[in-house]
Amino acid sequence: MFLFKNPFIQNIPQKNNVLLLETNGCHGEVIGGYAKYFQDLGYNVYCLVKNTIKKENPFIRLKNVTVFYTKSKKFAKLLKIDILKRYDHIFVMSSMNYDYGEKTVNELWPDINKHPSVYYVHHNMEYIEQHFNPKDTKHNIMLGHFKNTTYMNPHLFGDFDIPQKSDKTIFICVGGINPKRKNHTMLLSAIENLDAKGFDFTVYIVGSGSIKHLKPNVKKHIKLLGHLDYPDMYKYVESAHFFLPLLDDKNSAHDRYIKTQVTGSAQLIYGFRKIPIIHEKFATFYDFNDKNAIIYHDLLDGMKTAISMSTKDYNAYIKSLDKTVNKIYNETLNNLKGILNA
Question: Domain 169-325 is of which CATH architecture?
Fold first, then answer.
């Protein structure tokens, strides 16, 4: 009975269609970027995602993309080959499913492997090494340049505006206050030093955490936004001038962001043209240089440079960053063409 009522079954595509599949309740922001690439190649894009993604609304700025939402237990009925074969290509947005103890998607729903054109997006190189064929460059997709994988970076969120550089500089960092992901301690130290020198600025922090323990002279520069859905998060990112990835060169846990996976900050920096303030250790991996990013050895110096930057220099950085992002777009699009036509 369910099969006939579900719109994913009733809406049978004709041809030239691609299915983007996300079985987890995360990574929704990645789907839109891939959808845009397929659209630019002339495909009709259909997304099948876990229903918990719906309330986060990551697709708010997308156009002409059909999204179907379903519960985890319904995937078994939907991911059958007689349904999947209606699509020319299937892109699995997360190769691992976290609801069932980090098992591979093709292990949980084996009919996926019966399709002749299936590609897996991995969010960690270790997934490929442990569960997939490490030599299968064509079907293993990564968001960064890693050995024996196809590079495809999804940073296309839709239309956006770039704010003018004003007297009051706005920084933003996205991600919970967690030392395994970001070093907020060095940020707080930099804020205290900048305040002592009389600089006027605001730092938006998107993510869970508390600033109750902070000194008033530090707290006054911070706007802790907490967890936001994608529409609100996009608005705050759009309104900021500079992005703070807060990667720590001295924290070995952060080395994974250049060795085995990609920080989500990069996608937002690319997609909304936010000038990154990033440590020199991590810059090159993300195609950042001294013309499109503020590369620092000490965060305080990087933030000083940003606050003092003239409108002319700010616009020059944005222009250079735009060229870099267009290069990434073209490389990704050509890589996608290559694997689909191989």
Answer: 3-Layer(aba) Sandwich (3.40)
